[in-house]
Amino acid sequence: MIKAEIKHRFPDFALDVSVEADDGLIALFGPSGSGKTSVINAIAGLLKPDHGRISIQDRVLVDTERGIYVPPHQRRIGYVFQDARLFPHLSVKENLLYGQRFVSDGRDLGPVVDLLDLGQLLERRPVKLSGGEAQRVAIGRALLCAPQLLLMDEPLSALDARRRDAILPYLDRLHSESDVPIFYVSHAMAEVARLADHLVLLRQGRVTRQGLASELLSDPAAVPDIGVREAGAMITTHVAQPDAGDGLSELSTALGTLLLPRLSMPKGAAVRVRVLATDVILARERPVGLSALNILPATVETVHEGEGPGVAVALASGSDRLLARVTRRSARALDLTPGASCYAIIKSVSVAPQSVSASSREDQ
Amino acid sequence: MFGLGDQEWAAVSLSLQVAFWAVLVSLPLAIWVAHLLSRGDFRGKQLLNAVVHLPLILPPVVTGYLLLLTFGTQGAVGAILAQFGIVFAFRWTGAVLAAAVMAFPLIVRAIRLGIESVDPKLEEAAITLGASRWRVFTTVTLPMCVPAILAGTVLGFAKAMGEFGATITFVAAIPGETQTVPSAIYAFLQVPGAEASAIRLTIIAIVIAVAALLLSELMARRVTQRRVAP
């Protein structure tokens, strides 16, 4: 359990947030300038807040009321910066082992090297690494200090799309194989949706919403905070048939069978699939003669009208929820009101490979 | 030509000895002050900066006279130190003090540039990895400014070798005790027929200065190469 209440006045900006989350991966999502980095800097001790109380499990790091302020180097909080910040005068191996000079109970090098595939890089100098490699080393360096919490500040944003896709599986592994809670700052919803257990939405120094990622992502009322083009529900499911013919894989969800482009996961593997709200078409009757392969029966749960021409519709079927974004005109024409039964249509090819990731949770 | 006389030998070895000790003594203090000036945030920082630079802008004779007033046997500090048997006036140790004071601002400036070129973000990263401020300094900041420290050392050494005004004012030019190469050259020029001695010392001064410069370049290059090597 991580609790952070932080109030701080900057010359041109006021931060006033209260975050409370169970362990796992907690994503801080918001536009640039919303105060995400300041929040984790306060947790790391790189920013001393005017007022605040920060605790991890039962360990109080900051309590301005009681005059508690643990110095940053004694906090045991790992920090992976946007720019890897490797020490240029040390080799990769020396960088990895840097924190071990100060802690007696650091982790063993071997497993971390394996987890992040660093074996080939150990003798190199940081200047000879690519951006993605440097970031993997930075993650390993932080992990080897055996931190109680790992902070990651947009660790992928300095990388190009290809490198980002190359490093995401490592983050999946880090998340599922290590029990360190992670605070992950990002303004890219694709990353957040793929990784987050808990989601905190920030805007102008304040928390607009927070909660379980699976619930918040499929909450139509949260769509304005997430962004209409970024909103989309997360379906947690498992692979029913990796090879369902024609280069497709079959997933079994509470909504029905979902056919997606071929996945590399084995049969039975738990996966998370993000379905963008703009990729879902709704129909009141089961359509025929349609190219889209996934036609899933569902019931309208809530309809959220924003200020624009679109409305967000939450659909439920069993334990799974879907989010669809349609025009207000269509919603009226189809009479989409809570309780209405309809069909959600998802083109298989509209779900990008990056939208599918291994799930750490076995809540099927 | 290179048959050095006793007085010339004494001047050369004294100069090397003085410059060596002057740099050795001022280096730790210079690193500390350079760090204060580049990373510190405290009242009186500008005053400290001005005091450090004073020997650079004052006429050396004035600095020497101030040293005499302060550290002379009758001086405020000198009188106290004398009770403990520490005497600077007219001793080779006084020449070390004068050279150290004169070289100090040059060493500080060089090292300060080096510290300022170390990205504070790297120091932040070190803190999050468990390093205290002191350990950040010794494991990140200091190793990263090795080239600057080498540059400062050579500059300080050259300055200490060449120091004349403050030294001769503070400790005079006693052959074998306080007569360094510059004051020996000056003395030889006052004596008819001693030009050969003056020229020999001049050549030696040039050789030592160039050798020190080349050595530091070589060491700095080796440090940088190690950093970019695979």
TrEMBL record, chain A:
Residues 1-229 form the ABC transporter domain. It holds the Pfam family TOBE. Residues 289-355 form the Mop domain. PROSITE patterns: ABC_TRANSPORTER_1, ABC_TRANSPORTER_2, MOP. One of its GO terms (molecular function) is ABC-type transporter activity. GO terms for cellular component: membrane. This is Molybdenum import ATP-binding protein ModC. Keywords: ATP-binding, Cell inner membrane, Cell membrane, Membrane, Molybdenum, Nucleotide-binding, Translocase, Transport.
UniProtKB/TrEMBL annotation, chain B:
The chain crosses the membrane at residues 12-35, 47-68, 80-108, 136-158, 198-220. It is found in: Cell inner membrane; Cell membrane. Pfam families: BPD_transp_1. PROSITE patterns: ABC_TM1. Keywords: Cell inner membrane, Cell membrane, Membrane, Molybdenum, Transmembrane, Transmembrane helix, Transport. This is Molybdenum transport system permease. Residues 12-219 form the ABC transmembrane type-1 domain. Gene3D superfamilies: MetI-like (1.10.3720.10). Part of the binding-protein-dependent transport system for molybdenum; probably responsible for the translocation of the substrate across the membrane. GO terms for cellular component: plasma membrane. Belongs to the binding-protein-dependent transport system permease family. CysTW subfamily. CDD domains: TM_PBP2 (cd06261). It is a multi-pass membrane protein. It comes from the Bacteria.
